[in-house]
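Submission sheet (multi-component)
Chains listed below:
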Amino acid sequence: MIIRPVVSVSMKRSKITADIFIPLVFIVFLLAGWEFTVKLRSIPDWLLPGPAKIVHTLVDNAPLIAKHARSTLVECLVGFAVAILFSFVVAFLMDEIPLFRKAVYPLIVASQTIPIVSVAPLFIIWFGYGMLPKIIVVVLVCFFPIAISLLSGLAAVDKDYLELFRSMQASRLKIFRMVKLPLSMPSFFAGLRISAAYSVMGAVIGEWLGAKQGLGTYMTLAQRSFQIDRVFAAILAVTVLSAALFLLVSFIERLVIPWNRLGEK
Amino acid sequence: MPEIVVEGVSKTQGGLLTLGEINVVAGAGDFIGILGPSGCGKSTLFNIISGLLRPDRGRVLIDGRDVTGRTGRVSYMRQKDLLLPSLNIVENVSIPLVLKGMPKKQACAEAAAHFKQFGLEGFEKYYPRQLSGGMRQRAAMLRTYLFSSDILLLDEPFASLDAITKRKMQTWLIDVFNVINPTVMYITHDVDEALYLCDRIYVLSDCPTVVKLEIRVPLCRPPHGRTIVDPEYGVIRDKVMEALEI
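Outcome: structure written.
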């Protein structure tokens, strides 16, 4: 009566080939084309450096970039954590109190239409050049996808579950904790993964507009002195950081909701 | 074993008179069938009996006590298993006990004691998604049983199963019924299933729903467990089909 996943080793291996090997080959191919074009047409480094030069710069400036990356990472993580906390409170209230939902929902959507680059300088004026304005930008960027995915997850819970638990005399709080929250976790984590990747971008934008430290600052300084290889090295660092956060969230997801990976028949 | 009396219950939903005036009685230890076309308000009736909905008129008595519009006496099992994918089977099944205030560990032990009888032995730690549809329905039924062991309200419990599994589950249900002997109300739109399982069948009409026919089935739950071949079966079946206008 039990359904076990029937996946042979050879199937697994061919899946790994398809998922990892093919994109890898494609990326190498693109990079080779880039390097080749730069070399062949002898494009100067200050205009467009080749991938080899960029990696070289990254290695050479590793301690400095790592120092900047550290403060960017701190801003990301703090902002991310605040956004999660905030989303939970808002989503819980919106789900439980229809009036609150009606009042706040348009506001949340509208908040997403505000161009971050236009308000970030205001945060700097109000809160100075420290970390706080960057954290606020990260919170603004991350809050929306997390809150919306959590809300839609809560709203998508089958009404029959709620009726069943109500008929067994479960309190509203118990229904939320036992039914709604676990059932909305897959959707919540989908939003969390997206905003984990976005959070680095948010922090970099915040730093770009004025900061003492961070990858955004490093990038602006490099760009102003036409050290394009350093700009690219910083971009590479941002990408790695974003991917690392994305993977971290995926890893936490596996720990928190292991049951979600059990395939539905 | 308690007696369920549904007395002159009517309900309007969304401006539409869903339930006309329904009178249904299930005596102690009866296996009652409620047969009717889709969307005729069979589930609304269960929502009223379990107290989730308050009828516009009429009342529901269980063992002489008026439980109209009050939850907590009985829960009911639906076509969907409604097991939480985040919990394993024994945790899922013990939910009604936990909600009644029993410590989790004790509730799980209590639930596990019934696993053999419900054909779930050895699957305590499995998650719902790892089990077949039939097993999940059995777990859902055990959960319903643990909430109120003397009354089982079953709303098309096997409708989503394939024909072979469905038949197996019907014979299994008869075995369980013979051991625990609860009062059962069984909603279905399968005439043969109703005739196979139920002592008495209420045939409901289309909206606004009224009881069109109440009929005894003396041949139900045959001890041989095979197809009923008594000529009387055809006569009863035709009467039911006629009431359903098919």
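Remark: Residues 7-42 of chain A form one domain.
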